[in-house]
Amino acid sequence: MKWFDSFAAWWKSALHKRRFSMLSVEDKSEEWHVLVSPAGAFAGLLALVLLIFIIVLLLVAYTPVIEFLPGYKSDAVRSRESLMANIMRLDSMERRMNDMLTYNENIVLIINGKTPAVRTTIATDSIHRNKALVAPSAEDSLLRAQMEGNGIYGLHTTVPQRQAGRDNLEMTVPVDGIITSHFDIKGGKYGIRMASASMSPVMATADGTVLTSIWTPDKAYIIEIQHPNGLVSVYRNLSQTIVTKGQNVRGSEVIGYSASERADDGSDQFGFELWNGGKAVDPEGYIVF
C-alpha cells in the first residue's frame, strides 16, 4: 500500500499550515502574520473565481452593460432590422401586385380594341395608376410599325426569328429588392445595386450555363452565367451559392442567396451586371425591375 501511504503524506502536507509574516524594516519585528495551508489557498482561489463569475452573471442579466460589447445586437436592433426587412418585402409585393393589375387591365383593353392605360407615380412611396388614354407619339407609331412589319417582333414573323427577340423580353428580376445604384459606365458603375432582405433567394435571369461560381475576399460569392445571344449575367455580393461551374440553369431558378448584412454605404449590397458581346449594358434596358 505504498500509494496509499504516499497519498496520505501528500494530503497531510497540503493541510499543514504555513506562516506568512510581515516584518518591520527597522527592527525586524513582526507586524502581521497569517497561517494558511496549500489546500486552504486553493479553496480561497476557487471561491474568488466563483464570486467573480456570479458578479459578471448578475451584471449581464440585470444591467445593459452587455449592449456595449462589440458584435452584440440588442433586441431593439434586431427588431429594427426585422422591421426594415418586412417593409422592403411589403413594398416589393405591392409593386409587383400593382404591375400585375396594370398588366391584366391593359390586356383586357387591348383585347377590346382600346388603347392601354398608362401608369404614373406620385411623390408618395405607393404606386397609383392613371387610366387616362396614352397620347399618340412617334415612339408609339414606330412600335406599331415594328409589330405590323417583318421585324423580330412582327406578328407575321416566323417562329425562330420571333423566339430570338423574345429571349431578351423573358428575363426575370434576379432578387426582390429596391435599386439603390443605377448603371453609370462613366462613373465606373458597370451594373446596378439592390437593397434586399437578408438571405433573399437570388435567381437566374434566364436559361444559361454557369461560367463562374467562386468566393472572393472583397465581393463575397460571385456567379457568372452565359445566356443565349451573347449575354452574360453577373451576380455579386452573395452570402451563399448553390450552383457549380458548368451547371445548366433555367430562368427563375435559385442559384444563391444575398448578403446577410448591408452596409450603410451600400458596399456589400447585391450587385447585378449584364454584358453583351463583352461590353457592359444597362440591366434596366433588358429587365423590368
Please tell me about this protein's structure:
The chain is an alpha+beta fold. It has 3 domains: 2-62, no CATH class; 76-166, no CATH class; 177-285, Distorted Sandwich (Glucose Permease (Domain IIA)). Helix content is 33%, strand content 29%. It has helices spanning 2-15, 38-62, 75-111, 138-148, 159-166, and strands spanning 18-23, 30-36, 117-121, 127-133, 177-181, 191-196, 201-203, 208-216, 220-226, 231-241, 248-249, 254-258, 270-276, 279-281. The radius of gyration is 35 Å and the shape is elongated.
Output the CATH topology of the largest domain: Glucose Permease (Domain IIA)
Question: What is the distance, rounded to the nearest whole angstrom, between the alpha carbons of the first and last residues?
Answer: 86 Å
User: What structural category do the secondary elements indicate?
Assistant: alpha+beta
CATH class of the largest domain: Mainly Beta
> How large is the radius of gyration?
35 Å
Name of the CATH superfamily of the largest domain: Glucose Permease (Domain IIA)
- This entry's quaternary arrangement is single chain
Whole-number total of structural domains: 3
What is the fold's blueprint, element by element?
Elements: H1 2-15, E1 18-23, E2 30-36, H2 38-62, H3 75-111, E3 117-121, E4 127-133, H4 138-148, H5 159-166, E5 177-181, E6 191-196, E7 201-203, E8 208-216, E9 220-226, E10 231-241, E11 248-249, E12 254-258, E13 270-276, E14 279-281
Antiparallel strand pairs: 1-2, 3-4, 5-6, 6-13, 7-12, 8-9, 8-11, 9-10, 10-12, 10-13, 13-14
